[in-house]
Design brief:
The complex is a heterodimer.
Chain A lengths: L5 H27 L3 H20 L6 H22 L3 H22 L7 H8 L7 H20 L1 H9 L1 H6 L4 H23 L4 H13 L5 H26 L3 H19 L1 H7 L1
Helix pairs in contact in A: 1-6, 1-9, 1-10, 1-11, 2-3, 2-4, 2-5, 2-9, 2-10, 3-4, 3-9, 5-9, 6-9, 10-11, 10-12, 11-12
Chain B lengths: L4 E8 L9 E8 L4 E5 L6 H8 L7 E6 L2 E2 L5 H4 L2 E4 L13 H6 L14 H13 L15 H15 L3 E5 L7 H18 L2 E5 L5 H4 L3 E6 L2 E6 L1 H8 L1
Parallel strand pairs in B: 3-8, 3-9, 6-7, 7-8
Antiparallel strand pairs in B: 1-2, 1-4, 4-5, 9-10
Helix pairs in contact in B: 4-5, 5-6
The chains are: A mainly alpha, B alpha/beta.
Chain lengths: ~270, ~240
C-alpha cells in the first residue's frame, strides 16, 4: 500500500485512528466547557516534557511528556480554584513557562539545536511509531472508555451546568480534575502522531463540527469521535497519497470537516428559515 | 418533629469580600413548611440559600440541614435538596434535551455505575407531566421560553424526590400567569414530596402569598418577620 510495507502501514493507521477517536472524544468536553486553550496548554506541557526526555536521553521521551502533562493537570485545577481565575486565564500564565522550558531543554539536549527528535514532537511523525506504542495508545483508549463509563453521569451533569451539578449532590471538583488528567494523558500519548502544534486541531475541530449537527449532547458524543476517526483516516490517506506530513494532513482534514459542518449545519438552516 | 433547616448565628463572607454577607443569621424551617425570604438586592437572601445547601462555607455559626451538619463537601446530603438558582437561563444552543436536564437531577444519588433505568426514566416522564411540559420533553432546553425553563427546573425537583426545595427568585421576569403557574407547581411539588421549601423573592406575588411564614433580610441580618397578610395586601 502506497509502496510502504504493512509493518509500517498498520501501526500508523491504528495509531492515527486511536488518536483521532480519543482527542475528539475529550474535545467534546473541552469545547462545551469553553476550555479550548486547555489542549494547547497540555500539548506544550507535553512538548516540554518530551524535550526534557531528549535532553536526558531517556529511551522514550513520551514518558517524560506524560509526566509533564499530568503535572500540568495537577497544577491547573487547584491553581484555578485557589486564585478564583478561569482555567483559560491560568492556562495563559502557564503557556509561556512550558514553551520556555521546552526550548531550554532542546537547547541543552546532546544533539544541540532543534534536531529531528524535537521536530517530530512539534509536527508529529506517525510513520515512525511502533506496535508497542500503538499498544500504549490502545491502553489509554481503554482507560478513556472506562472513565467515561464510571463517571458518565458526573460528566453529563457537569457539561449541563457546573453549579446545578454541584447543587444536586455531585462532586464537580473531583470530576473536573479527572477530566484535566484525562486530557493531559491523551495529549501526551498523542504527541508523537500529530505533534504538539497540531493536536489542538484534532481536539477542537471534530468536536466543534459535531456541535453543528445536533442539540443533543448524547448524539454529539457519538458524532465527535466519528469525525475524529474520519479526519484521521482521510488525513492518513492524504498524507500517503500526496506525500504530505501526516500531522498536517490530519489537521487539514479536521479543518475541512469543521468548515463543511458549519456550512451544512441544520442549525444554521433552521435559524435562517 | 425535627426542623428541616436550622441556622444559628451564621456568618458568611464571599471570598475576596471585606464585609460579611451574612452577619449572624438565626432561623429555622419546620418539616413541610414554606418560608419566604424577602429584602432588598444585596441583602443576603441568596447567600442564605447557598449556606443552607453548603455551596458557600460559613465563617462561624452552625448550619444543620435535614438533620445533618452541612458543609461544602456534604455531597450526598445535597442530593436530597432541590436548588433552583437565580437567573439560570439556558442559551438557545445548549445541547441538552429537556428530559435529560431533568434526568441529570437524579445523578447525585447513589448508584453512579447504574445506567438510567426504565424506572428512572418513568419518574422523569411523571415529573414532566406534573409540571405540564411533557410534550416538550424531547426539545432542546435552550429552545424553551423562560417560564418553560423554570418549569423544567421545578420538574428536576420532583424527579430528584427532594426533601427540601431552595428556590431563588423562581418567578423573576415571568408574566403574571406564569408566576401563578409556578406558585401552583411549587405547591404541588411540596404536596407530592412532602417537602419543605425556602423561597427567595424581592417582590410580592402568589408564591410569597402561599408561604407559611415570611422574613425580611437587610444588610445580612434578619430584620424581622413579616405578616403574610401584609404581603398579600402589598400585592393588591
Amino acid at each position: 500500500m502506497f509502496g510502504l510495507p504493512w509493518h509500517i502501514i498498520l501501526p500508523t493507521l491504528l495509531g492515527s485512528l486511536l488518536v483521532g477517536a480519543m482527542c475528539s472524544s475529550v474535545g467534546t468536553f473541552v469545547v462545551r466547557m469553553k476550555l479550548s486553550s486547555l489542549g494547547f496548554a497540555m500539548s506544550h506541557a507535553a512538548f516540554a516534557g518530551a524535550a526534557l526526555g531528549l535532553m536526558l536521553t531517556v529511551a522514550d521521551p513520551i514518558w517524560t511528556a506524560i509526566l509533564f502533562a499530568v503535572v500540568m493537570a495537577a497544577v491547573l485545577g487547584p491553581v484555578s480554584d485557589l486564585s478564583r481565575l478561569q482555567v483559560d486565564t491560568v492556562v495563559g500564565a502557564t503557556f509561556p513557562l512550558t514553551m520556555a522550558l521546552g526550548l531550554i531543554f532542546i537547547n541543552k539536549a546532546p544533539s544541540s539545536g532543534i534536531g529531528s527528535g524535537a521536530l517530530s514532537l512539534l509536527w508529529g511523525s506517525v510513520l515512525g511509531i511502533t506496535m508497542a506504542q500503538v499498544y500504549v495508545l490502545a491502553g489509554v483508549f481503554v482507560l478513556l472508555v472506562g472513565v467515561l463509563i464510571v463517571f458518565g453521569k458526573e460528566f453529563f451533569a457537569l457539561l449541563l451546568d457546573r453549579k446545578l451539578a454541584r447543587a444536586s449532590g455531585l462532586n464537580t471538583q473531583r470530576t473536573f480534575y479527572i477530566l484535566l488528567f484525562l486530557v493531559a494523558l491523551i495529549v501526551a500519548v498523542s504527541l508523537r502522531v500529530t505533534g504538539g502544534l497540531l493536536i489542538y486541531a484534532l481536539m477542537i475541530l471534530p468536536a466543534s463540527a459535531a456541535f453543528q449537527w445536533a442539540y443533543d449532547i448524547k448524539k454529539i458524543f457519538l458524532i465527535s469521535p466519528l469525525f475524529g476517526l474520519l479526519a484521521a483516516l482521510s488525513g492518513f490517506l492524504l498524507s500517503l497519497g500526496a506525500d504530505l506530513p501526516m500531522g498536517a494532513s490530519i489537521a487539514l482534514c479536521c479543518a475541512a470537516i469543521f468548515f463543511g459542518s458549519v456550512l451544512l449545519s441544520p442549525k444554521r438552516r433552521r435559524q435562517a428559515a | 418533629m425535627d426542623d428541616v433547616v436550622t441556622l444559628v448565628d451564621v456568618r458568611a463572607t464571599y471570598e475576596g469580600e471585606r464585609y460579611a454577607t451574612l452577619a449572624g443569621v438565626t432561623l429555622s424551617l419546620a418539616a413541610r413548611e414554606q418560608l419566604a425570604i424577602t429584602g432588598p438586592n444585596g441583602a443576603g437572601k441568596t447567600t442564605v440559600l447557598e449556606v443552607i445547601n453548603g455551596l458557600l462555607p460559613i465563617t462561624s455559626g452552625t448550619v444543620r440541614t435535614l438533620g445533618c451538619a452541612m458543609t461544602p463537601t456534604s455531597h450526598r446530603l445535597r442530593s436530597q435538596i432541590a436548588y433552583v438558582p437565580q437567573n439560570l437561563f439556558f442559551p438557545p444552543d445548549t445541547p441538552f434535551l429537556v428530559r435529560d436536564v431533568v434526568l441529570a437531577a437524579r445523578f447525585g444519588k447513589p448508584g453512579r455505575l447504574k445506567p438510567a433505568m426504565a424506572a428512572e426514566r418513568r419518574s422523569v416522564d411523571r415529573a414532566l407531566e406534573a409540571v405540564g411540559i411533557d410534550a416538550l420533553s424531547r426539545r432542546p432546553i435552550g429552545r424553551l421560553s423562560g417560564g418553560q425553563q423554570r418549569k423544567a427546573l421545578l420538574a428536576r425537583a420532583l424527579a430528584q424526590e427532594a426533601r427540601l426545595l431552595l428556590l431563588d427568585e423562581p418567578t423573576a421576569n415571568l408574566d403574571p400567569t406564569a408566576k401563578q403557574e409556578v406558585a401552583n407547581l411549587v405547591a404541588r411539588v411540596r404536596r407530592d414530596l412532602g417537602a419543605a421549601a425556602v423561597v427567595v423573592s424581592h417582590e410580592s406575588g402568589p408564591l410569597l402569598e402561599a408561604s407559611d411564614r415570611a422574613i425580611r433580610i437587610e444588610s445580612g441580618r434578619i430584620a424581622g418577620e413579616i405578616e403574610l397578610a401584609r404581603i398579600i395586601a402589598m400585592a393588591r
